[in-house]
Write a structure and sequence with these properties.
By secondary structure, the protein is α+β, with helices and mostly antiparallel strands. Helix content is 29%, strand content 22%. The chain is globular and about 45 Å long.
Length: 214
């Protein structure tokens, strides 16, 4: 069932009082860093920024205001499609923080608000005005005591990194659509999924190292 539209200003999810001026990279410096990078294995990684607001998108990327507004709307729709759902508000807020959850009018389940969305300049074709990826939403995990506390999380349970950062190196797969979160969870359920993702990724990394003689 299609989720109801919500009106969300991304800067309303500005956790721990972090402001745009508190970001670690200055905007002029960041713009010089944006682009395609190559990892040690030869596979392309991209420098992507987390835009918390449309204004951040305009200031920190090559997209103009209209394109940034489209990016925000597409990311919001993706967040509504893929985000984890909870049976009640208390369970959602226990993982994502007070006042960072909303209730869907169709299902009556609760979902975390989008904390921001990833944009990689290298995937934007300025001539065709087309983005060759997905404006990927991220959510701010806020459960104290968790190793994921104060980290940006993808809808599938993978962690992006600290919410104190603006720019991240990510594989192109991170900028592709995520599957809809498969189940409604109770308190701590999303954190359990995230922990399982870490174990899976660690096993994959170990297997890759072994295949190279490590």
């Amino acid at each position: 069932m299609k989720r109801s539209k919500i009106t969300l200003l991304p800067n309303a999810a500005n956790f721990d009082g972090l402001s745009n001026t508190g970001r670690q990279l200055t905007r002029p410096l960041y713009l010089g860093l944006t682009g395609l990078l190559l990892s040690g294995c030869g596979e392309p990684d991209y420098t992507a920024i987390v835009a918390n607001t449309v204004e951040d998108c305009v200031a920190d990327t090559s997209l103009d205001l209209q394109q940034c507004e489209v990016a925000y709307q597409e990311a919001l729709e993706e967040a509504q499609r893929t985000g984890p759902s909870f049976f009640n508000e208390q369970d959602c807020e226990w993982e994502f923080g007070a006042e960072n959850c909303y209730q869907d009018n169709d299902t009556n389940y609760f979902f975390p608000l989008m904390a921001g969305y990833l944009i990689a300049d290298a995937l934007f074709d300025s001539k065709k005005r087309k983005y060759r990826g997905t404006y990927t939403p991220v959510f701010g995990y806020k459960r104290k005591g968790s190793k994921f506390n104060n980290k940006y999380m993808f809808a599938d349970g993978n962690a992006l990194g600290s919410m104190n950062k603006m720019a991240f190196k990510v594989p192109k797969d991170s900028l592709k659509p995520k599957p809809t979160f498969a189940r409604t969870v109770s308190r701590g359920g999303f954190g359990q999924v995230a922990a399982q993702k870490v174990k899976i990724n660690q096993r994959r990394s170990t297997n890759r190292n072994r295949s190279w003689g490590g």
